[in-house]
Amino acid sequence: MSGGRRHIGVAERRARLAVRHRLAGPARATAPAEVAEALVALHGSDPATVYLAVGARLAEAAKTVPETERALYEDRTLVRMHGMRHTVFVFPAELTAVVHASTGLTVAARERAHLLKDMAQAGAPDAAWLAEVESAALAALARLGQATATELSAAEPRLREQFTYAAGKSYEGVHTVSTRLLRVLGVEGKVVRGRPLGSWTSSQFRWAPAPDHAELDPAAAQAVLLDRWLHACGPATEADLKWWTGWRVTEVRRALTAIGAQPVTLDEGDTGYVTAGDLPPVTEPSRPWAALLPALDPTAMAWQQRDWYLPPELRPLLFDRSGNVGPTVWWNGLVVGGWAQRRDGEIVWRILDPGIGREAEQAIAAEAERLRGWVGTAKVTPRFRTPVERELSE
Length: 394
Known about the structure:
- By secondary structure, the chain is α+β, with helices and mostly antiparallel strands.
- The chain is 41% helix and 16% strand.
- It has a four-stranded antiparallel sheet.
- α5 runs antiparallel to α8, α5 packs across α9 and α9 crosses α11.
C-alpha cells in the first residue's frame, strides 16, 4: 500500500493480462464471442486480425474461421463497425448501442461536416442533394440486404459522382461520393460492414444495414464502456484511457467518477485505475504461456503506456512509423519477438530477447505450429508492415 492505495506491480499486471485476455492456456475461450466480450473490442481495420486474435485465444483453434464467420454473419453476435478513434472494430452485439452513443456520435458529426465542406469547396452538389442520395442508397441497401459500393452505385448512380479533394495541394485527390458517404454512414451507425467478397483475409467487403439499437445517453454510455474496458485492461492510467477511447480528459474523468473507479499505484510511479471491487490480488497462471498475436492485436494496442509489457528498444522493430504494431511473440506477459508468414505459408519467428530460455522457445514453437495448423493454406500479410515482419516474410 502507498498512501492508503493498493499497489499493482508489473508481475500482477501481466497476470491480469494473461487471464482476462484469454491468453494463458487454462483461460482460453470456447467461442469467438467469449473472446470479444473479454477484450471488449477486436481491431477490425485489417480483417485477418479479427480471426488471428480469436484463434490465439480459442481452446480449439481449428474452429476459428467457421465459428468467427458464423458469429459475424449468421448469428450476428459480433458486429464490425466504427468505434473509438474512428477505427473499425468488431464488438459484441450488445455493445453496439454503447459504442455508438459513447464515441460514434461525436466522430460522426465531425465526419459529415468534413464531407459537406469538401464537397462545397469542390463545387459539388449541396447538402440537399446529398440527403437525397443518402436516402436512396439506404433504401437500396435495405432491398438488397448486403451490397458492395459498386452494387449500390448501380442501384443509385449518383453515388458515382466524383469531386476533387484539396485542390491545388500536395495531397490533392479525387473522391467518389460512395466512398465518403458510406464511411460517414458507418460512423453514424446506419450501415455496418458485411461479408467479405473473398476469404476471411479479404479486405473487400459488402455493406449491410446496421442492426437496430436503442439510443443511449452519451455520458451513461461512456460509463458503461469504460467500466467494461477497465475490467479487461485495468489498471490503466488516464493517458491510457484517453488514448484508447479518443475522448477528452474531462469525459474520461467523468466516466471514472460515474463507475466508482479505484485509484492504485503502479511501478512506474503513475496512478492507475481499476473498477470498483477489483482490488483483490490476481495470481499468476499455474503454467507459463506463450502466444503469437497478430498485427493490431487488441492486447498489444490496448495501452498507450506499454513499457511494462513491451521493452522500449523493441518498438522500432515491431511498429510501423504510424504507431501500428505488427505481429508479436509473447512469453509470460512480455513481448519477446516478432513473427511472420512466408510466401510458402511457413510461420517463422524471431526472438529479440536472447535470455528467455529453452522452455520459452519450445512453447513459442508449439504456438507457431498451432497457428499453422488452423491457418492452413491461407496467406496473411498485415496491412501495416513492420521491419521484423517484412524481413521474416521474405
